[in-house]
Amino acid sequence: MPTNKQRRVAAQRRLQRQLERRAELARRRRRNLLVVVTVLAVVLVAGAVALVAGLGGDDDPGAAAASSSSTSAAAEATAAPATTNADGTVGCTYVPDTSGNSNLVEAGTPPDPAATPATGTVSLLMSTSQGEIPLTLDRAKAPCAAASFAYLAQQRFFDGSPCHREVNAESFGVLQCGDPTGTGQGGPTYKFAEEVTPETTYPRGTIAMANSGSPGSTGSQFFLVFTDSQLPPDYTVVGTVDEAGLAVLDTIAAAGNDGSFEPSPGGGAPNLPVTIDSMTVVA
């Protein structure tokens, strides 16, 4: 028969083993939770990268592969940043897009780029199948983009084109337009440099220019921001949408998108189809 002391020792050993098993289970739960959190973080980052990457669209999908060749890279023209003149105007450089993209549409180039106005604003009326969206371009903030946008509007470049992509994410809500082919790969036959700073942000009501992701690849595609959007400062902010225009955008956004661009770059065509009937320079 075991003594009381032996029974106490045996009980203590059983308790110690139970405590060790509980501690091991707790360690496993913490390890599994850490793995789940890490995976979720990677998925969220990848999703954000994919959504942002989708704002590039003025280059042909095959251009990226072609640009890896040193010969193609050397032949590709480079869009230089704007330079400021003594009279306050700026010199803009609009260079030919030699990527071989078959979706580019000839539209000439903005006139007198060496003396582009860098003060004041340009008012546009974007008449769409879902309503009128007044736009204001800021020449002081983005003189080259404002001049190009207004020029293309005067050339009726945007008329009859669809807004091909909508994104309805919590921290990224935009309607993307400006491609006359409606493919998401179209634009003019010229390109120019981005006009951004490290402080560039994209709050609700922003008009910003899309690009291919490479420096100096801004063209005609633009996006209208209806939700404060967390994006890297890589896209030229060219102006703003007024409250009446935002009301139209909110109606479009409320209908959502068809998910045709999921999982990458994200979003899809608007469920309420949006066609730019006309883009008119008002003042």
Q: How would you sum up this structure, described in words?
A:
- The radius of gyration is 27 Å and the shape is elongated.
- The protein has one domain: Cyclophilin.
- The protein has 5 helices and 15 strands.
- It is of the alpha+beta class.
- The relative contact order is 0.18.
- β1 (83-84) and β2 (90-91) form a beta hairpin.
- The N and C termini lie far apart (105 Å).
- The chain is 30% helix and 22% strand.
- The longest helix has 50 residues, at 4-53.
- Residues 34-53 and 58-75 have low confidence and may be disordered.
- It has a 9-stranded antiparallel sheet. It has a two-stranded antiparallel sheet with strand order 1-2. It has a two-stranded antiparallel ribbon with strand order 3-11.
- PPIases accelerate the folding of proteins. It catalyzes the cis-trans isomerization of proline imidic peptide bonds in oligopeptides.
- This is Peptidyl-prolyl cis-trans isomerase B (Cyclophilin B).
- InterPro entries: Cyclophilin-like_dom_sf, Cyclophilin-type_PPIase_dom, Cyclophilin_A-like.
- Residues 131-281 form the PPIase cyclophilin-type domain.
- It comes from Geodermatophilus tzadiensis.
